[in-house]
From TrEMBL:
<dbReference type="Pfam" id="PF03576">
    <property type="entry name" value="Peptidase_S58"/>
</dbReference>
<protein>
    <submittedName>
        <fullName>Uncharacterized protein</fullName>
    </submittedName>
</protein>
<dbReference type="InterPro" id="IPR005321">
    <property type="entry name" value="Peptidase_S58_DmpA"/>
</dbReference>
<dbReference type="GO" id="GO:0004177">
    <property type="term" value="F:aminopeptidase activity"/>
</dbReference>
<comment type="similarity">
    <text>Belongs to the peptidase S58 family.</text>
</comment>
<dbReference type="InterPro" id="IPR016117">
    <property type="entry name" value="ArgJ-like_dom_sf"/>
</dbReference>
Amino acid sequence: MSGEIFLAFSTGNEIPVNQPRPPEGESKTMIEEVKAVEDSALSSLFEATAECVEEAIYNCLFIAETMQGVEGHRVEALPLKRVKEIMKEYGRAHMI
C-alpha cells in the first residue's frame, strides 16, 4: 500500500526543551540519549493500527445517510447494495 503515514507520541523519553542557555564561554552538549523499540517489533502494531483505521473508515462510510444542506446541496449516501457487488467482484466482500 502507498500513502500510509504513522505518527506516534510517547512519554517514554524525556527530552528537555526550552532549557536556559549555558553561561557564555561554556558549551552545552547537543547529544541526547533516546530509548526506542526496534522497528521490527512494531510491525504487528502498525498492521493492527492500519486495520483499525480501515475498519473505522468503512463503518463511517456505510452508516452515512443522504444529507441535504444549504441552498439545496445534496450528498447521497453510498448505495450499499452496489458497494457489496463491487467488493465481491474484487474478492473483498469479507470486509463488509
